Amino acid sequence: MGLANLSGQCSFEVALSGGLDSTVLLHLLCLARLQLPDISLGAVHVHHGLSPRADSWAEHCQSLCANWDVPLRVERVCVETSGGQSLEAEARCLRYQAFDRSAAKVIVLAHHQDDQAETVMLQALRGGGVKAMAAMAGLHRRGAKWLWRPLLSVSRSQLEDYAREHTLTGWMTKAMPTPVGVAICCVTTFFRGCKNRYRNIGSTCAGLPV
User: Fold this and answer.
1) Per the annotation, does 31 bind a ligand?
2) Taking 50 as the threshold, does the pLDDT of residue 176 lie above it?
3) Which of 13, 15, 160, 165 fits 104 for a cystine, CB–CB 3.0-4.6 Å?
């Protein structure tokens, strides 16, 4: 799903964590900006404050965006559980509220094929029904904005290959999972083990209907 699917939408903001996935995504859109000068491109980094390295991630994103001439918006949020909601769910809710405050019409997310498959597996482990296990949509309307996930057909290994080819280095990694990502980390580890044996598991899970 390319920019042609978003004809008429000229303002884009990349959700930038500072990791490999969003770094590659931002680089791709910077290249697209050279061919489509009418595009307004920015980035947003949501500072959850849940990791001792959270400030370092924000600083890395600021440096990266300065080097690539991309305006960056840093949103600091305070994650607190309420009403029985988990840290993971609360952090996600605050993250999407930060996206809602964007001046851009399209929020671009770096979810890729492996994320798609892991989402399906996580919902299955939680006991979700068919609807709950539906894959993420490549293009989704959220209020007055669009959420666009252009990398859903791209695997993590392909993103790594792209980063090597374009000498993209220095992206941030999580040394240890935070409380927000413990369940996801377990699923990710399991999924990567499955990939070693079942090569097509990523595309199979990711191909479930939305």
Assistant:
1) no
2) no
3) 13
